[in-house]
Amino acid sequence: MFSCLAALFGLLAVVLGAFGAHGLKDLLGHNGTAAVWDKAVFYHFIHAVMLFILAERKNIPKFAWWSFLAGIVIFSGSLYLLAVTNVYWLGAITPLGGACFVAGWACLIFSRAQKN
Predict the structure, then answer these.
(1) Cα separation of the two ends of the chain
(2) Closest Cα to residue 27, out of 86, 90, 76, 74?
(3) 63-81: b or e for each residue (b if 16 or more CB lie within 10 Å)?
(4) pTM: predicted TM-score of the whole model, two decimal places
(5) Within 13 Å and on the Cβ side, how many CA atoms surround 86?
(6) What value does the mean pLDDT take over residues 29-39?
């Protein structure tokens, strides 16, 4: 299940990246939010790769995995919406997703430190 969800989120990162570059090019240009879309795709893709790496481990650090997934949905999701709607209050949600990313990375640091 974890590997399939990770692969799905990786696929979505590629599709959304391509869609932003081609299908939404005019809208993002008009809104002046192409960089916002690119930032969303960048963080989405990096953390989708991490989801897959963690899913393939024997003992999945589930808190980190779910934190990264929540981070993708909240951080990247809010930026995707902001980029297409130009509704800037959505940017207030983005840091919650960033906090999820930080929590996931911190979990990996602490779980690694406990093993050493």
Answers:
(1) 29
(2) 86
(3) ebbbbbbbbbebbbbbbbb
(4) 0.92
(5) 7
(6) 96
